[in-house]
Structures are given as C-alpha cells and as structure tokens.
Amino acid sequence: MIVVAADRSDHAAEVIGEATELGELAGEPLHVVHVLTRREFLDLQRASTEDTGKPVEIDRVRALAEKQAGRAIDRAGVENAEAVGLMGKPGESIAEYAEEHDARYVVAGYRRRSPAGKVVFGSVAQRILRESARPVLMVGGR
After folding, report:
1. Buried (b) or exposed (e) across 52-68, using 16+ Cβ within 10 A?
2. CB within 8 A of 80, min separation 6: which ones?
3. Stretch (H or E) spanning 20
4. How far apart are the C-alpha atoms of 18 and 81, rounded to whole Å?
5. What is the pTM of this model?
6. Which residue stretches of 27-142 are H helix?
7. End-to-end CA distance of the chain
8. Per-domain residue ranges for the chain?
C-alpha cells in the first residue's frame, strides 16, 4: 500500500497523481489520508455546541476528514484510491498510519518556504520525513 498525505491545497491533486504512478509501477493500492488537526477539531466542537448544544462525535470528525480526502481524490481524477480520515498531528498521524498498515511508501507534498518560515511555522512534510520509518517520496510545489 502507498499512503498519500492530502491537504486542502491545489497541490494535493499533483501529489496524488505522482502517487498513482508509483502505485501502478509498484502494484500497490493508494490510501489517501487527510488529517484534521486539534485546532480544526476544537473549531468543529465549538460550532457544534453553539448550533446544537451537543459536542460533535469523534466518528463524525473522522468522517469529515475522510470526505476531504475523497474530495482530493476526485480533484486528482483518480478512481482506485481509498479515502482515509484521521485526527491529530498531521505528520505524526500519517507516519503512524503508514507504520500500522505496513505501507510500502509514503507520498507527500511540500511547498518552497523561506528559512525563517521553516523555523517559525514548521512543516508537515518535514515531520513526515522525520517520523516515518517508511520510504518517503516528496513532491515539490510552488
């Protein structure tokens, strides 16, 4: 299996496209993973509590993340990929998912950033590289 990290950016379609080619060459299926962060979860909790008076269920949060992965798959025009939704820290969650499912490769995108931007903001791509015990293919963006 190939685990593909998909965010909400336009670059995600290109990352999925590259992963699709790798999957075809390696004879491996794709699992396109989108991770909702703790902050996004808290925003959903707040909105749900304000709207309904009830907290949002964890299964619903994962379903929303899975739906986002499905949208990325659709934008990439790929048919044979499984959408996966997770919640947590994106880099760590993706690396853990790849390890738990014995992924052959992890594919992720990155954007060019200034040195200060890398230090101040961190990078999901950097975390995937550091955390993953699997080979990682990085797909550059603008």
Report:
1. eeeebeeeebbebbbeb
2. 29, 30
3. helix 11-26
4. 13
5. 0.85
6. 38-52, 58-76, 90-100, 115-121, 124-131
7. 27
8. 2-140
* Residue (of 50, 47, 27, 41) closest to 93 by Cα position: 41
* C-alpha to C-alpha distance for 6 and 33, rounded to whole angstroms: 6
41 and 61 Cβ atoms separated by less than 8 Å = yes
CATH top class, domain 2-140: alpha beta
Residues 118-134 have pLDDT tens digits of 554 457 888 898 888 99
Q: For residues 133 and 120, what is the distance between their CA atoms, to the nearest angstrom?
A: 25
CA distances to 1, 7, 50, 64 from 57, rounded to whole Å, are 29, 22, 14, 11
**pLDDT value of residue 113:** 64
Amino acid at 120: V
